[in-house]
Structure prediction request, 284 residues.
Amino acid sequence: MNYRHAFHAGNFADVLKHAALALILARLAAKDAPFFYLDTHAGAARYDLGGAEAARTGEARDGVLRLVGEIETHPGLRPYLGIVRGLNVGEPGLVRYPGSPWIARKLMRPQDRLLLCEMHPDALHELRRATAGDRRIEVRPSDGWIALKSDLPPAERRGLVLIDPPFEAKDEFERLARGLRHAYRRFATGVLAGWYPIKTRAPVDALHRAIVDAGLRRVLVVELLVRAPAAETDEAPRLAGCGLVVVNPPWTLAERLAALMPPLTERLAQAPGAAFRLETLVGE
Prediction:
């Protein structure tokens, strides 16, 4: 409950996560049937890039603010950056940044439904303010891990579950693997996405092994490294990158990410070792 995403809004990890999120939701919205969206750790809907928290770290400068210019027009970024730009209409530049709930809200249709779980009181207050009056959206002040059991499968039978924990607890990688397994057992036809940080490789490799061992099928992995990961012996490793595990990726997602990741990695690189990874972890 101590994590405040406002300090990290718009950083390189947000860019990867939200670009992929927008591509997935846009694809779900391409069919007339309603979809359900569950955000287990929703955070606030909107962030002030000029606020005290974001200004203290300045992480957006090495994230979304690096996308201003020619790369903005890349097809893989259009759904995401269109929403970012829409939130900044009338502003001299990018001064506000959308969280995942805002992106989902902008891409949903009248027939779709959102469930947003958040426990931090400040983020919860902003989330409620941003979604007030929208009957398609339920904001729940509860542990999102519980919703993976209590709210799946949804009545819509199609949709996206985003699991994006703060990774404050030591067992968060294990909880993510369990959460994906629980969600898959209840909603095997849904798109399931789990975000994770990369500081060293060992926890990430263990997560991937756990997913394979759990029997999940059709699993895509996309990772972005802005620098080389630290050695396992490093006592205070820096964040080197992040990744998404996507179960049941929509058609064309892998193709669109394959076109996006090389220029995105080049634009967001911060140190030697910057690279990307895009592969099928488990097939059909």
Remarks:
- The chain has one domain: 5-282.
- The first helix runs from residue 12 to 28.
- The CA atoms of residues 19 and 77 lie 6 Å apart.
